[in-house]
User: Fold this.
Amino acid sequence: MDCLLETRALTKGFKGFVAVNGVDLKVRRGEIHALIGPNGAGKTTFFNLLTKFLIPDRGRILYAGADITLEKPAEVARRGIVRSFQLSAVFPHLTVLENVRIALQRALGTHFHFWKPESSLAVLHGRVAELLEAVGLGAFAHSTAVELPYGRKRALEIATTLAMGPTLMLLDEPTQGMGLEDVERVTGLIRQAAAERTVLMVEHNMQVVAKIADTITVLQRGQVIASGRYAEVSRDPRVMEAYMGSADLELQGPRA
Assistant:
């Protein structure tokens, strides 16, 4: 499989503190690639560099062979790089249908045509229904987003992300704060979404990572300390030391 996203010696510091330090990363097309590491390892800063919320001090970002290091956020989004965030990012007082429809309006080019009647958006409802069914929200189309349980809100975020037609989905802590049932649901949605696109995800839940990630890269203090399949990475002494404080402990994988 060819490389869709690559960073070369990517570096970002803040007032003497280097949050991302010379990171080389390759994300292969069609894979689920997990970026893991203890708190403060630089994972979110790395995501912010990819989506141009931050500009690197040094290094390069290549996407589908093009250098996007200095591109603006809107330019990166137009290339098909779409991101979800750690905190719920839906419009709470709009319905589930309206949330997804807003994301689809981008394809119509009418997202700033505020003078048009709502009825002009009815052409999108078929696709909205498909996306909501895909994430298990078909029965919630007319519910207000604020009424949804947390796990369902995260499913709605995945639906709105898919509505934007991403080639690369960047998922920042997609299962954070969820109960077991919601974790299972969202894990299944990520695997389903990855069937047609590439996923790079930051995730703390090692059972989720072990279950669905094709490749895992581990950051510590802004640097890559290991990268590979779960079976290799989970037994790397540097990784066990970073997570557990002892090279005698193994990361916990999926339970039987």
About this structure: Residues 89 and 149 are 14 Å apart (CA to CA). The longest helix spans residues 150-163. Residues 246-250 have pLDDT under 50 and may be disordered. The beta strands are 3-14, 17-28, 32-36, 58-63, 66-67, 81-84, 168-172, 198-202, 215-220, 223-228.
